[in-house]
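ugh ok fine here u go
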Amino acid sequence: MRTIPLRERKLDLIFVLFFISNAGFVTYIVDLEALAIPDTRHFSYPVWPPEPLVRLIHWYGNHYDPLLMARPPFWEATMWIDVLLFGPFYLLAIYAFLRGRDWIRVPALVWSGMMMSNVLIILMDEKYGVTPAPNYLFVVSLNLPWLLLPLAVIWRMRRDHPFTTVEPVAANEPVPAQASAR
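structure:
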């Protein structure tokens, strides 16, 4: 087996950039803000995330996403999932996609299913819940990457060895015992 170099897997850079933005902004800024500030009406600014980012998150929530400001228990649970499970996954996935490590396949499939489930549940609440989004289509459009990229990851991980290929054996080389048994 030979690892396919990243220069031959250019589309994987889209996944890497998505994982970087999720780890760097969504998980460890937006989600941590939600956990650090359980009540957006009465709070002091936490050490992390920085005050300007907290203000940006609250501005978005107050204008477009009341669910973000309401923070019901199910939504808080998705934030904990993101911080405790998805955050570490993103860091591993960045490494695995850059270096071409097949061991990320199963975690990537699990992440994809969990992410799509979380986002669909949140979007259902955004539409029909107690705090519906005033511009639902806008909120859906902002959340679309978290539905489409997991689908793309499922497609990308469809093979048992997504980052490797079998090296052809030269005509004058003996075939290893493992290869001939296949």
